[in-house]
RNA sequence: GUGGCUAUAGUUUAGUGGUAAAACACCAGUCUGUGGCACUGGUUUCGAGAGUUCGAUUCUCUCUAGCCACCCCA
């Protein structure tokens, strides 16, 4: 026994080490100690107790998707790397620093998706969805990958909920997107959220604005931080949300994109704000809001959690991307969408102590005693299940005592006891756990009797559809 | 990617240069076929590797992971 234990311990330690990479022909891989009893950095399990939260996030968002007319779509985790380079944009952090890009055995350069919209757009074009009645509304949910340094609420694998709407350019869609995002968050019991909106213009006025901005920033060049001097060449818009104090000062008095919109974009933004007012959706206009993806035009928005003074975290964001479909080779199609980070939603749910719905619990426990009874109980269990009686068991346990302990812990209302004697007599003992009273019932009447008892108990039944949005 | 802090049973935490402890949890017994309470007992641990040392869980270094700030965003 002791020997056995020692071996187990040893093998566990051995398992903790990943096998060294074997040198393969001429290439010699770097020798490294790894661990296989934990996932790679920034990845984590979603454990059973967490699933309550996940179920709820899924349920709330799926219901809203349905109610607002969005159809589900799932696209591959892996796409050609160029899809993201083209859409998200070269020069963005996501593409330059954070993408998991690799070559397949066949030599294709592919990437784990760093966001969902690009793949959805690809699918939209590939399957000719432009012939469908507009707008085409798509809903997706799944993991995305970014090679970033992990910390709480920031993982290399995280899940996003994505809503996209294609083919409609009216600002009412933008407003509705913001409304849906807010509804998802509120539906999860998160009350304090802040909507930040901005307009970064279309390809025409943004170009003009960019020149204006660069001129201004060039004049203040000396006051900018090191990073921003580089940004000035590559992506000047990003200087606007630099957190360096001195850059912030410069940015604060920089020309603002909303003051330099073309007529069309200006009206679009004005309409959006009017629609938001109409929806009674509070928002903050943040002229420095610039998103990390290049495909956005006109409307951009983010949703932040937390109170005024508390720590704020972005729960999600989105915007309009009227040029993306064309850029990827489709018919010019206006579009608007947003994504929400599920892990962050759950962190926030926990922070505000929003209780997830409890999953249904078994109300009956089946205990068995002795070989014959054990055999019979296996069938009885599935008989109960077929009749819709959610039953728990602990077939692995022998003693009645330990089985009753489990039954008690589960909080069931009724325990069925099937022993040697009952197995021979074709009966079952029905024990009421609250009162301790038990009665002997003939096996063929058992299902009806239990059904009656459970009904009579008038216990609150779990409501599948009670989602408080 | 940069800087800082941390790593002890399943969980939350004590503690020590001489290989470890508490609480809760789990398993079992007291009760030969009856749960909750109580009592008794049991299982399980120093993140990985290297160095210093007679001896390292403790000191040093490296790696890994977690957290925090920056950055970025979801």
Q: Can you put this structure into words, describing what you see?
A:
Helix content is 38%, strand content 19%. The radius of gyration is 29 Å and the shape is elongated. Strand 9 and strand 10 form a beta hairpin. It has 469 residues and is an alpha+beta fold. The chain folds into 2 domains: 245 residues, BirA Bifunctional Protein, domain 2 (2-Layer Sandwich); 93 residues, Rossmann fold, CATH 3.40.50. Helix 6 packs parallel to helix 10. It binds one RNA strand of 74 nucleotides through strand 6, strand 10, strand 11, helix 12 and helix 14.
**Structural domain tally:** 2
Distance between the termini: 57 Å
The tally of beta strands, per DSSP, is 16
Question: What structural class should be given to the helix and strand makeup?
Answer: alpha+beta
Q: β content, as a range?
A: 15-25%
CATH architecture of the largest domain: 2-Layer Sandwich
How are strands sequenced across the largest beta sheet?
1-5-6-11-10-9-7-8
The helical percent reads 25-40%
Q: Regions with pLDDT < 50 over 5+ consecutive residues?
A: 1-34, 458-469
Determine the CATH superfamily of the largest domain. Answer: Bira Bifunctional Protein, Domain 2
Shape: elongated
How many alpha or pi helices?
A: 16
Q: Remind me, CATH topology of the largest domain?
A: BirA Bifunctional Protein, domain 2
């Amino acid at each position: 026994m002791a020997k056995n234990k020692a071996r187990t311990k040893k093998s566990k330690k051995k398992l903790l080490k990943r096998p060294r990479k074997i040198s393969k022909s001429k290439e010699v891989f770097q020798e490294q100690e790894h661990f296989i009893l934990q996932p790679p950095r920034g990845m984590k399990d979603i454990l059973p107790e967490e699933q309550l939260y996940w179920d709820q996030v899924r349920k709330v968002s799926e219901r809203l998707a349905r109610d607002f007319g969005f159809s589900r779509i799932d696209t591959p985790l892996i796409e050609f790397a160029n899809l993201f380079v083209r859409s998200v944009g070269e020069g963005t952090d996501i593409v330059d620093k954070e993408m998991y890009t690799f070559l397949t055995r066949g030599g294709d350069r592919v990437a784990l998706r760093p966001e969902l919209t690009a793949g959805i757009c690809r699918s939209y074009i590939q399957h000719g969805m432009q012939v469908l009645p507009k707008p085409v509304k798509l809903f997706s949910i799944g993991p995305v990958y970014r090679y970033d340094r992990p910390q709480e609420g920031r993982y290399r694998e995280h899940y996003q909920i994505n809503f996209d709407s294609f083919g409609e350019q009216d600002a009412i869609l933008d407003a509705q997107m913001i409304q849906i995002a807010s509804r998802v968050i509120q539906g999860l019991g998160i009350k304090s959220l802040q909507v930040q909106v901005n307009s970064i213009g279309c390809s025409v006025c943004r170009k003009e604005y960019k020149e204006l901005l660069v001129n201004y920033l060039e004049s203040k060049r000396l006051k900018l931080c090191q990073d921003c001097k580089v940004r000035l060449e590559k992506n000047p818009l990003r200087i606007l949300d630099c957190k360096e104090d001195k850059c912030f000062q410069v940015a604060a008095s920089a020309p603002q994109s909303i003051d330099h919109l073309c007529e069309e974009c200006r009206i679009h933004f004005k309409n959006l704000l009017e629609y938001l007012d109409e929806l009674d959706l509070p928002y903050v206009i943040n002229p420095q809001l610039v998103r990390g993806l290049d495909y956005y035009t006109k409307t951009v928005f983010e949703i932040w959690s937390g109170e005024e003074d508390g720590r704020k975290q972005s729960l999600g964001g989105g915007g309009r991307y009227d040029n993306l479909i064309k850029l990827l080779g489709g018919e010019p199609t206006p579009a608007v969408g947003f994504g929400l980070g599920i892990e962050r939603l759950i962190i926030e749910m926990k922070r505000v102590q929003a209780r997830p719905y409890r999953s249904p619990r078994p109300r009956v426990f089946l205990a068995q005693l002795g070989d014959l009874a054990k055999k019979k109980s296996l069938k009885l269990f599935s008989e109960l299940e077929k009749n819709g009686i959610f039953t728990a068991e602990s077939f692995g346990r022998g003693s009645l005592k330990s089985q009753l302990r489990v039954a008690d812990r589960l909080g069931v209302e009724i325990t069925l006891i099937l022993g040697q004697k009952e197995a021979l007599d074709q009966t079952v003992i029905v024990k009421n756990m609250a009162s301790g009273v038990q009665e002997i019932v003939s096996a063929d009447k058992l299902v009806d009797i239990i059904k009656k008892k459970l009904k009579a108990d008038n216990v609150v039944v779990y409501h599948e559809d009670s989602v408080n949005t």
